[in-house]
# Entry
Amino acid sequence: MSEKNPINLNPGDSAVIVRHDNSDDSGFGIEIYHHPLKSMSDEDLIFYTLLTRGMAFQATIDTEAVLELGEESYTGDENVALTHH
# Structure
């Protein structure tokens, strides 16, 4: 986790953070955070854990495919909600 830029999550939030790596490789790192609800079922917790881990895993093993899907989300007819912060 970045000590300079802490992540603040509300209860029930999960986040996948992509950080630019300033090393000689100029790659990226992926961090996953969860702030589960106290009343969250084990099944829901497993779902969000697997969802975020799957996103991070796919991005690291087939980055090109993930980039292509991101491009399609801008040009496709799919109803995808995009938020920019």
